[in-house]
Write a structure and sequence with these properties.
Layout: E1 14-20, H1 34-37, H2 44-61, E2 63-67, H3 75-84, H4 87-90, E3 94-99, E4 101-103, E5 116-118, H5 122-136, E6 142-148, H6 158-169, E7 173-178, H7 183-191, E8 194-195, E9 198-199, E10 203-207, H8 216-224, E11 228-232, H9 251-260, H10 264-273, E12 280-283, H11 288-295, H12 304-310, H13 317-325
Parallel strand pairs: 1-2, 1-12, 2-3, 3-6, 6-7, 7-10, 10-11, 11-12
Antiparallel strand pairs: 4-5, 8-9
Helix pairs in contact: 2-3, 2-11, 7-8
Length: 330
Amino acid sequence: MPTSDNPESAAAPITRFGLGTAAVGRPGYITLGRELDLPADRTAEAMRARTHALLDAAWAAGVRYFDTARSYGRAEEFVGQWLRARPEIADEVTIGSKWGYTYTADWRTSGVSAHEVKEHAVAVFDRQIRETREQLGSHLNVYLVHSVTPDSPALTDRALHERLAALAAEGVRVGLSTSGPAQAHTVRAALDLTVDGGPLFSAVQSTWNLLESSAGPALAEAHSAGWLVVVKEAMANGRLAGRNATGPGTAPLRAVAARLGATTDALALAAAAANPWADITLSGAATIAHLTSNLTAADLTLTPGIRTELAPLTESPETFWRTRSELPWA
């Protein structure tokens, strides 16, 4: 794989895949098998080095979309430092970040009552947009309200909407990320929001994977409205990775992957990217080996027949989100 030490050696852009930094901007997260992916030494310097190595590898492989958030520990800081050290490529990438959660774990993985606290208030936006700009500078292309659910004030607070509309007027694409079993309802409610007669939002980042596909029709509507649609958690926090996809329920995934000569993680990502409404599908890799495997999804073509074979993996939204809520931070 070429390296970004020589930007001219970078591969042609991979337009449908991006890299998220949730797993590497802080020492603890809910991805399965994290203890196998990261060293016991998870100091800020160690995680910074890991993040920069992943960003380098992703850039060299052709990735041009990078996702971060205020609540991902020091991820915005790491991404901003990486960009400043590589001014020759900084204008060729798209950077998305999110506000609305505050990181509260104080760089710990255990003994933490809450790793992050959600609040979609005007005061939080004012603070976090300032913090984001301190870390990313001018490299903020997409800014999302983090993890909106139907009861979020982000859908009803007109003062907040005015703030977001002002940011959009500066050229930043403003939107929301979604979570929970009512993602489709949230997306449709957001599609209806207007400020001064025009749509407020123009981007969404939602969970879609072979286990939880319920947001698909609403995301198709967002895409038709001209929104940027980004898929997160396409591997279901590691549940669709080969080392974890071992139960009888994932047999179709393993069977199709074996027949295609692909890894299960690449197949899961390819399935998400195959949706015609999906503009970007994020890899959440914590190692370069996993990133390399993830990005082979770009070489996979999924026929309608293959997608039908994979359909039995689907769970109810309630089951999926209940299972996700039980994953440990490690």
